[in-house]
């Protein structure tokens, strides 16, 4: 999804760009891509892939692995395999939305601060400094208590709080670009701020932003699962991987593997995202020279 | 050098101002929470009369502005006030826990920072090889696991099955340094898992970024070994971004470890803060936030000073 | 003899046994001579194995917060309650058999009717600071909870008291606003810890009592340590040299601490994994049947719950056994839409309401609905698994054409913002000592926690009449009718009574475990010991 965005700003037909990109891809990048598409497939077709409903109670509690219940059932008798599939939707959906929101807000403001400078930069930077000085988890906790922990609130609050981190990074890298001669030249030509950001700044800072994207995604995911540990996560019976690890975490202390499954689902996704991100950063840094 | 001092002084002033704003934000946020200390303490057993009596006794019936300024003037005279819930002076509540938190953060940092730097250097040295990928995969897997999950797995193997280290890290002031270290090691390892990836990746990226600069190529041409080049020529110049990330993670170690505290029953500041928020114990929440924010501001200042010292050009912004 | 099986429970588990009841109710003008029967050292049953003195007992508890206070008026959960019962004594005590006996009170009698009660204190008891126990201490203690300025969570409980006076140094007289034959029971409430008075006032934060242990330190949210009171007045109690109460809120952390020998006992075993824990040969699991009830409270004045047919439809739309099996994992028993369980003296054995979707539809139709959609507010703040219970109820009700929309509210602030505020919310309650106590707090017209907004004239008349009624048979009839009224017309859908499930290492010994509160009636420090 991210790549279509980056390439769409250029004038070469998209499909050709994608094809040639794929041909040059390193095996790890391809692997990451395959995993991502598998996840995407599962997310889109969850209702068809899952043999049972997300919240329907279909058997006795803790039924063992069997042909009917591939991964057994949970403490209430819900099919774990089905919940794992539905959880992909919720977890990835929420985390991705919050991450994108963080990058849109943080990225946009960061570039504005770098390009415009002056008091705008000062005000934004001080504001972000202040927000960052309040511990993230505690602040998120406070806000969720005030606004309630609905999905929308969760996405908005996490997106806004994480935007501060993105802002800092964007501003820092955009600063370096903003002092370049060609940006000065554009300014002297009288180009509008938006034009400068879109044509001169953004293309040149995409690579570090990408590199950050994979990690931010992880951090936001972890934050969601920490919040659900403290009792402020998603509404049950909604399944999400963090909550599924949490719900079954007691089992691990007895050496049972069930909670490993959602944890592995997250780990594989994280690695895949970062493999793809690595590939792109690599490519971008190669292109810029 | 004067320039540097000026910058530091300016930043400190700004930091104080930030603290002031934060104290207002937190005060307001806690006020906006539904309920107050009276309803939270009495819980299901609350009667309207008892709630009113507690409010009056604690002065919660006063307008918010005057309560804020009461708190602020107390702070300026060095009085952090008393816990609304227990009546204990806030300072007393905080000091042991602050030491515990710093001790844990310190131990975790002593493990994770050298480890992350080492792994980062190795990954950069063998970039795009199997070693690099293995390091990357390992650290990425580590940060994709929720903290409590890593903690439970560690406890399962090290405490329950091997019986080496107790599963509860209940430290207290009477323990010797060594006992303390033993109790702190599991939470510290858990936190290492969580923070290592970020620092390692930044180290790797910063070094690789510099490897293409002319002076490094020069060093190669002079026939220096890659290890020597990285440690002696690249790393010193890559400090600025690396220190920045280290500082962010140190701040996290001090302010964000509630979950680890809960799982290991470690008496740190995070749990105190969460409990106090839950009970709307404003003076404690405020004091803890001030400590957290001040820590963050100071750490950032240090990071900036390091950046400036390592790159004098930053001393004279255009 | 020690297992609490369902069969003999009716007979033995009573909070107030018939004997205790006779003592308080029939006492009008007659008895009080039985007081001698409760004198030292007969504190309930003497434990069967021979207890041994000594050892450092470490107890891991699921609650405890950094905001905990020593003030008994603010005790809110098992952590401070357990500490409280270690360092304080109360006027009366509930034995493991459910009998109400004197603790600091040697005897009590109505003087001259049930609107006035005289408690005679034991002599020769001293507080930890050396001050002898006197009537003035009791007066000051109760006044700490009473009055307009009271900040006590027990304010509602002491409301029926009009005034308190002393008669000599060792007699306290309670003047009640109205006759109440069950009054002595409330003096066993965990808030009513007797503290020493100075100039008619108690210092609630001093932590000084007459109990079996002396407070060494309290670190809120972490640990409380108490050491044995060498001058303890009870014999055969308080066996440990030292007890540490540890706040371990995470269930996994608590379990691991027990398995690795860092604690000797813990409360609230995780029911999902209790079967795995049972395999540990060093541990024993205590499954203590109790009358702690879980329920769904409907506002009987709000639509659509103001129609009793809707209430009956919802009561028939839940499979109680399924809730007990899935949420409580079998550690509990069916409830019957009213709070008085088998352990109460005045328990009425009404026919158990069954899960019957057809009947539910029938009542729904009677109320003029073909299908119904209602919001149910819940949170895991109510009890572990509350949200699961609501989700399962939703599945049951769907079969009766009722769509229950489960709304999980934030745990934080649940009691303040959701319970008694939303038309339909979940709640729980610990058992109270007597049916009157429970009804007065939850179902009377002016009850503080009338969470169903229930106004039933017949019920209210009966409740008042029963308090003044002295004939045991007539009282039983009245309470039976009140229970039937709540069962058939009240706003509670009550699926289950939950058991208290705790675990301890096999090195720990104990007698029959009390059912009135968790952890042996919160008296674990006083009653348990290490086996030799």
Mean pLDDT of chain C: 87
Q: State the CATH topology of the domain at 96-315 in chain B.
A: MetI-like fold
Oligomer: heterotrimer
Shape of chain C: globular
Number of helices of chain B: 13
Please, how many helices of chain C?
Answer: 18
CATH homology superfamily of the domain at 96-315 in chain B: MetI-like
Shape of chain B: globular
Could you describe the largest sheet of chain C, including whether it forms a barrel? Answer: 9 strands, mixed
Share of helix of chain B, binned: over 70%
Just give the CATH class of the domain at 96-315 in chain B.
Mainly Alpha
The profile of the biggest β sheet of chain B is: none
Structural class by secondary-structure content of chain B: mainly alpha
Q: What CATH architecture label of the domain at 96-315 in chain B applies?
A: Orthogonal Bundle
List unreliable stretches of 5+ residues of chain C.
1-47
Describe the structure in your own words.
The complex is a heterotrimer of chains A (289), B (318) and C (532). Chain A is an all-alpha fold and 289 residues long. Chain A has 12 helices and no strands. By secondary structure, chain B is mainly α. In chain B, 77% of the residues lie in helices and 0% in strands. Chain B has 13 helices and no strands. Chain B has helices spanning 2-32, 37-42, 48-58, 64-76, 90-125, 130-144, 147-161, 177-211, 214-221, 226-255, 258-264, 269-278, 282-310. In chain B, helix 10 (226-255) runs antiparallel to helix 13. Chain B is globular and about 85 Å long. Chain C is of the alpha+beta class and 532 residues long. In chain C, the strands form 6 sheets. In chain C, strands 1, 10, 11, 12, 13, 14, 15, 18 and 19 form a 9-stranded mixed β-sheet that branches. In chain C, helix 9 (308-316) runs antiparallel to helix 11 and helix 15 runs antiparallel to helix 16. Mean pLDDT of chain C is 87; it is low at 1-47. At the A-B interface, helix 6, helix 7, helix 10, helix 11 and helix 12 of A face helix 1, helix 6, helix 7, helix 8 and helix 11 of B.
């Amino acid at each position: 999804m991210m790549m279509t965005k980056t390439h769409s700003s250029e004038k070469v037909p998209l499909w050709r760009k994608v094809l040639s990109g794929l041909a040059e891809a390193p095996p790890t990048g391809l692997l990451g891509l395959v995993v991502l598409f598998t996840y995407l497939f599962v997310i889109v077709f969850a209702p068809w892939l899952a043999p049972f409903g997300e919240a329907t109670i279909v058997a006795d509690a803790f039924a063992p692995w069997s042909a009917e219940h591939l991964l057994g059932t949970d403490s209430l008798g819900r099919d774990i395999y089905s919940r794992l599939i539905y959880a992909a939707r919720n977890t990835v959906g929420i985390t991705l939305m919050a991450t994108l929101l963080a990058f849109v807000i943080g990225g946009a403001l960061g570039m504005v601060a770098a390009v415009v400078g002056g008091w705008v930069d000062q005000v934004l930077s001080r504001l972000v400094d202040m927000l960052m000085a309040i511990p993230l988890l505690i602040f998120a906790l406070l806000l969720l208590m005030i606004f309630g922990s609905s999905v929308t609130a969760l996405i908005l609050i996490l997106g806004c709080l994480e935007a501060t981190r993105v802002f800092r990074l964007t501003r820092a890298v955009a600063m370096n670009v903003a002092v370049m001669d060609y940006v000065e030249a554009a300014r002297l030509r009288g180009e509008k701020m938006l034009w400068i950001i879109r044509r001169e700044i953004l293309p040149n800072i995409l690579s570090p932003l990408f590199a950050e994207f994979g990690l931010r995604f992880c951090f936001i995911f972890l934050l969601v699962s920490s919040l659900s540990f403290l009792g402020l996560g998603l509404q049950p019976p909604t399944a999400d991987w963090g909550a599924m690890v949490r719900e079954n975490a007691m089992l691990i202390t007895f050496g049972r593997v069930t909670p490993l499954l959602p944890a592995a689902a997250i780990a594989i996704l994280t690695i895949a995202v970062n493999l793809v991100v690595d590939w792109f950063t690599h490519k971008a840094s190669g292109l810029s020279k | 050098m004067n320039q540097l001092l000026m910058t530091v002084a300016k930043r400190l002033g700004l930091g104080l101002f930030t603290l002031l704003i934060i104290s207002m934000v937190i005060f307001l946020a806690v006020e906006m929470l539904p309920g107050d200390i009276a309803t939270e303490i009495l819980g299901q057993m609350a009667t309207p009369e008892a709630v009113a009596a507690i409010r009056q006794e604690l002065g919660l019936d006063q307008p918010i502005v005057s309560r804020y300024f009461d708190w602020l003037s107390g702070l300026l005279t060095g009085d952090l006030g008393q816990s609304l819930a227990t009546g204990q002076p806030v300072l007393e509540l905080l000091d042991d826990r602050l030491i515990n938190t710093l001790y844990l953060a310190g131990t975790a940092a002593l493990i994770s920072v050298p480890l992350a730097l080492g792994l980062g250097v190795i990954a950069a040295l063998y970039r795009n090889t199997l070693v690099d990928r293995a390091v990357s995969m390992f650290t990425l897997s580590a940060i994709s696991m929720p903290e409590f999950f890593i903690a439970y797995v560690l406890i399962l193997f090290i405490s329950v099955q091997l019986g080496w280290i107790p599963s509860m890290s209940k430290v207290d002031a009477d323990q010797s340094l060594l006992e303390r270290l033993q109790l702190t090691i599991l939470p510290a390892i858990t936190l290492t898992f969580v923070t290592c990836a970020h620092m390692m990746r930044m180290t790797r990226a910063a070094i690789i970024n510099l490897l293409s600069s002319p002076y490094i190529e020069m060093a190669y041409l002079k026939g220096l070994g890659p290890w020597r080049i990285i440690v002696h020529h690249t790393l010193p110049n890559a400090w600025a971004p690396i220190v920045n990330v280290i500082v962010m993670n140190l701040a996290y170690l001090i302010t964000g470890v509630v979950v680890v505290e809960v799982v290991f029953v470690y008496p740190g500041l995070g749990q105190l803060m969460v409990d106090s928020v839950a009970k709307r114990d404003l003076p404690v929440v405020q004091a803890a936030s001030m400590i957290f924010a001040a820590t963050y501001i100071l750490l950032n200042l240090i990071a900036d000073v390091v950046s400036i010292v390592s790159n004098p050009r930053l001393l004279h912004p255009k | 003899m020690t297992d609490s099986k369902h069969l003999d429970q009716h007979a033995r588990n009573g909070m107030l046994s018939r004997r205790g009841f006779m003592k308080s109710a029939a006492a009008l003008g007659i008895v009080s001579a039985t007081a001698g029967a409760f004198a030292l050292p007969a504190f309930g049953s003497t434990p069967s194995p021979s207890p041994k003195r000594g050892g450092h007992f470490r107890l891991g508890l699921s609650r405890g917060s950094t905001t905990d206070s020593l003030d008994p008026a603010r005790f809110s959960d098992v952590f401070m309650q357990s500490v409280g019962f270690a360092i304080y004594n109360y006027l009366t005590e509930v034995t493991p058999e459910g009998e109400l006996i004197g603790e600091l009170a040697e005897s009590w009698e109505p003087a001259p009717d049930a609107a006035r009660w005289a408690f005679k204190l034991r002599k020769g008891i001293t507080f930890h600071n050396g001050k002898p126990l006197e009537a003035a201490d009791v007066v000051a203690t109760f006044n700490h909870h009473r009055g307009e300025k009271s900040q006590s969570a027990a304010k509602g409980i002491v409301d029926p008291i009009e005034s308190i006076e002393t008669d000599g140094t060792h007699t306290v007289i309670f003047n009640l606003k109205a006759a109440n034959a069950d009054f002595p029971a409330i003096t066993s409430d965990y808030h009513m810890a007797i503290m020493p008075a100075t100039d008619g006032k108690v210092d609630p934060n001093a932590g000084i009592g007459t109990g079996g242990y002396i407070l060494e330190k309290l670190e809120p949210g972490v640990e409380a340590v108490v050491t044995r009171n060498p001058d303890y007045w009870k014999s055969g109690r308080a066996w440990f040299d030292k007890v540490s109460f540890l706040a371990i809120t995470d269930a996994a952390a608590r379990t691991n601490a027990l398995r690795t020998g860092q604690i000797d006992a813990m409360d609230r075993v995780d029911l999902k994994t209790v079967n795995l824990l049972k395999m540990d040969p060093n541990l024993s699991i205590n499954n203590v049947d109790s009358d702690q009830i879980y329920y769904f409270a409907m506002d009987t004045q709000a639509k659509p719950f103001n129609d009793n047919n809707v209430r009956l439809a919802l009561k028939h739309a839940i499979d109680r056994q399924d809730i007990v099996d899935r949420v409580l994992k079998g550690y509990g028993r069916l409830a019957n839409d009213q709070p008085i369980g088998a352990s109460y003296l005045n328990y009425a054995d009404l026919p158990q309401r069954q899960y019957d979707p057809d009947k539910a539809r029938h009542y729904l139709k009677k109320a003029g609905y073909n299908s119904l959609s209602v919001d149910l507010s819940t949170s895991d703040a109510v009890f572990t698994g509350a949200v699961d219970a609501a989700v399962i109820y939703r599945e049951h009700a769907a079969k009766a054409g009722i769509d229950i929309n489960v709304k999980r509210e934030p745990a934080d602030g649940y009691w303040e913002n959701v319970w008694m505020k939303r038309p339909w919310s979940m709640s729980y309650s610990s058992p109270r000592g007597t049916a009157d106590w429970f009804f007065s707090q939850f179902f009377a017209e002016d009850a503080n926690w009338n969470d169903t907004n229930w106004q039933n004239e017949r019920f209210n008349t009966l409740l008042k009449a029963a308090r003044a009624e002295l004939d045991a048979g007539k009282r039983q009839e009245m309470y039976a009718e009140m229970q039937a009224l709540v069962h058939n017309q009240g706003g509670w859908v009550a699926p289950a009574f939950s058991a208290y499930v705790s675990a301890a290492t096999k090195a720990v010994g104990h007698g029959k475990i009390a059912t009135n509160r968790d952890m042996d009636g919160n008296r674990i420090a006083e009653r348990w010991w290490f086996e030799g």
